[in-house]
Amino acid sequence: MKIFLKRCAVFTIFPLLFFIINFIINLFIILHNPLVINEEIIILGDSHVMTAINPHLMHNTINISQAGEPYIITYIKLKKILEKNKPKKIILGFGYHNISAFNDGKLSRADSVNEIFSRIYPLFSLETLNILDAIDINHFYFFRALFFNTMLYPHTDHMRYIGSFSKRNKSKLDKADVEFAINRHFYNGSIEYGVSAIQINFLEKILMLANKNDIKIFLVNPPLHRLYRENIPKKLKESYIQIKNKYITSGLHVLDYSEYKLDDKYFYDYDHLNSNGAELFTQIIDNIVSK
Hints:
This protein has helices spanning 2-31, 47-52, 71-84, 113-120, 126-132, 139-150, 178-186, 197-212, 226-229, 234-249, 275-289, and strands spanning 41-44, 61-63, 89-93, 187-188, 191-192, 216-221, 253-256.
């Protein structure tokens, strides 16, 4: 029995040491490779601004948006960015779907949580955990992402939380399903998600963080296809307008182009622009932001 226990101990210790050594190496790489952003204008948000604003058509601008990113993750990213960087301006996605309670489940639902945690694991800290405690998170996927990305082998790239502009050359409106997009963003079955107090709270935190660091922030709602726009739940749309008007009254720059009329050829699907649409819309945004 003692021999068996000793063998078990040996077989346990070596893998454990392997995991610990890899974790230390990856932690060293993360801590000694700080994020450096030299651009003066940073574009933050999810796939809507990721596809709508082309930073290559603007001066000294970078788009680090990522698909499916809720405000709580944007807030954590921005705090990390501001540790070593001082942008002058921020363009932040501010669409109808951004304030939907649909976003509250992104760190707990299996269809999104693995992807998000696999991107943001380098941002994990006690402070981050305290922030994430504000919402329901899937702890299994949290530690799973940490294990697979830091304990199996040394990674050279731990900056996967930094996105980029996504150029979508074609239009797939003929194949897109507007009802699917609407249901995904605004309905849980037959019940409306409604407005998320959590997303509004972290939007406010982003605004306060920008103000604290003397950063000029622009809230941007890119153009939406008429069929998508007309099917947004009335209550959520009214709430969005109230929030938008409150921000405008307070002096914030809110650029709502959701009703901007564009031909179908400029849309990738019903709620994203393609590269031609992005080129047109970027010119509009650049003329405002660059002043």
